[in-house]
Amino acid sequence: ITDIACFEPYDGEPPQLTGATGEFEDPVTGIVAAARLDYTYSPGRAQTAYINALGGRRTVGERCPSCRKVYVPPRGACPTCGVATDEQVEVGPRGTVTTFCIVNIKAKNLDIEVPYVYAHIALDGAG
Fold first, then answer.
1. pLDDT exceeds 90 at position 9
2. Distances (CA, A) of 48 to 26, 78, 118, 123
3. pLDDT of res. 1
4. What pLDDT shows up at residue 10?
5. Share in percent of the chain as helix, strand, coil (round to 5)
6. Using an 8 Å Cβ cutoff, are 96 and 122 in contact?
7. What single DSSP character describes residue 19?
8. What secondary structure does DSSP assign to 25-73, as a single string?
9. In this predicted model, what pLDDT tens digit does every residue of 60-117 receive, in sequence order?
10. Are 123 and 59 within 8 A, CB to CB?
11. Is 2 a residue whose pLDDT tops 80?
12. Which one, of 52, 64, 82, 43, lies nearest residue 126 by Cα?
């Protein structure tokens, strides 16, 4: 508080209570407001190499020098050890489906016909 020097104690009568309960006849339970978030994404070193490899129809990850796990897409650092990664490893193109679901509800602003399959795939060579 920077303006505390301007406050003066009140010497008058205490305020009279009006008997209000603090409850509203028509309480607000929610609002609808338009929102928009605009992004400019700047990939770092690891993500740039990944995107460039995809352009050449290859998939690359990076190996952690400590735990030796390979992360795809590369993050630039091992999320487990916190060690910087820079050894590129080509993975795939084959892999194992680890989980999947069949989507039957059309998503807003997504131009994919339903039903479609969403799957997580552990690429051969990835950790």
1. no
2. 54, 17, 25, 20
3. 59
4. 79
5. 10, 25, 65
6. yes
7. -
8. SS------------------HHHHHHHHHHHTT-EEEEE-TTT--EESS
9. 999 999 999 999 999 999 999 999 999 999 999 999 999 999 999 998 888 899 999 9
10. yes
11. no
12. 64
The whole-angstrom separation of Cα 109 and Cα 9 is: 59
Does 27 sit behind a cis peptide bond, omega within 30 degrees of 0 on the bond before it? no
Virtual torsion, Cα 26, 29, 31, 37, nearest 10 deg: 160
Q: 116 and 60 in contact (C-beta within 8 Å)?
A: no
Q: Over the range 10-24, which residues count as b (16 or more CB within 10 Å of their CB) and which as e? A: eeeeeeeeeeeeeee
Q: Give the pTM.
A: 0.60
Element (H, E) at 117: strand 116-123
Q: Give the range among 10-24, 29-43, 45-59 with minimum mean pLDDT.
A: 10-24
